[in-house]
Amino acid sequence: MSSPIHPRSGRPLGEVLHWRQFLLITGLFWAYVTLSNVLYAHAFGGTLALLKINDLFAPWPQRVLQHLLLLAPLLGCYWASLRIGWRPAWRALPLQMVLAVGFAALPHWALMLADKGLRVAVGKPWQELADQAATPTLSGSADIALWIASGTNFLLQYGFGLALITGLAWYRRYRDAELQVEALTGQTNAARLSALRMQLSPHTLFNLLNTIRGQIGWDPRAAQQMVVQLSDLLRKLLSAGEREFSLLADELQFVRLYLSLQQSRFPDRLRISLPESVPALWVPSLILQPLVENAVAHGMPGHDGPVNIRVQAAVEGERLVLTVVNDMGPAGPVREDGIGLRNVRERLAAHFGDLATLRTQATAGVWRAEVSLPAVSSR
């Protein structure tokens, strides 16, 4: 029989349940049916005995053996029912009815076979006990009526058990489908985050190469040093791009290296302020990089004096607040729909949903970008 399956829409119900689960549920259900039928027959037979009416029910050992004999056909019918399924209805419903009616016709023969088996196994004591009870033979109209009544009773019990097994199989299929959707959603989010991180690499590289190109013409030694720094930066960039989260200290080290490259070109115009120590917290990899790039790219043009770029990190309760503040030239504020800001917003939404935000503000020649996200400790 089949082992646990990978969820797939439209898979037969018989392949959704593990065979051990199928046997356990069916066995427990049939044990309950056996016990309830035996107790009902015993109680009702006792009531009839007080009225001096011959026992209409077979003795309990015969009834227990009858249900044991019916267990194998029950398992076969249920398994076939799950394999058949319920769609299309025009084909499945007739087959399901054939299985149900066919099983309901078996209890009479199982009861007779149980009687014969006990007569052989037990002998005379059982014959004396059995002769006192009524065992249907289908030889008269009363026996036929009892057989029909018994078949109707077992048909209802068969239906209850089938509903239980089918409901469990449908639940398993639904749960497996949900797990598959969650797994695919996780894979989609991972691919999306990976694409967003890779989006940073060419954008950052393009800006830095332009910086080095401008340095080569009039200061080759400085340009060589910047190439070495760029190599180190790209190594860290590739490493960070492979991880969803990085330590805040590592993020700031990356930012410091990037700003050092920019400061090599504008030593007198770029002033940098970074926190010396930060808490041991996890943040999305490269989350500060687009904000710092915007601070340089949109702070320097059209600005005659020194441009101050300040990066701050503060813990407020259970939240981490990262702030990038820079002087702004007369060209105006950064576009809200720019690549960098859009990238940060999308990554924050993918990681934290509504729990993380990016707020920007331009006032009095100063641009401020503030990221607020849950403080995830690394300890």
How does this model look, in words?
This protein has helices at residues 19-50, 60-84, 89-104, 106-122, 124-131, 141-216, 220-241, 248-265, 289-299, 339-352; strands at residues 245-247, 270-273, 281-284, 307-316, 319-327, 357-363, 366-374, 376-377. It has 379 residues and is an alpha+beta fold. It has two domains: 13-183, no CATH class; 217-377, Histidine kinase-like ATPase, C-terminal domain (Heat Shock Protein 90), CATH 3.30.565. The strands form two sheets. A five-stranded mixed β-sheet has the order 2-4-5-7-6, covered by helices on one side. It has a three-stranded antiparallel β-sheet with strand order 1-3-8. Helix 2 (60-84) packs across helix 6, helix 7 runs antiparallel to helix 8 and helix 9 (289-299) packs antiparallel against helix 10 (339-352). The model is unreliable at 1-9 (pLDDT under 50).
Give the beta-strand count: 8
Question: How many domains, in number, for the residues?
Answer: 2
The helix/strand series, from N terminus to C terminus, equals: HHHHHHHEHEEHEEHEEE
State the assembly state of the protein chains.
single chain
What gross morphology would you assign? rod-shaped
What count of helical segments does DSSP give? 10
What does the main sheet amount to? Answer: 5 strands, mixed
The side-by-side strand order for the widest beta sheet comes to 2-4-5-7-6
Mean pLDDT: 79
Estimated share of beta-strand residues: 5-15%
Q: Look at the helices and sheets and give the structural class.
A: alpha+beta
**Computed Rg:** 39 Å
From the N-terminal CA to the C-terminal CA, the straight-line distance is 47 Å
> Stretches where pLDDT falls below 50 for ≥5 residues?
1-9
Level of helix content?
55-70%
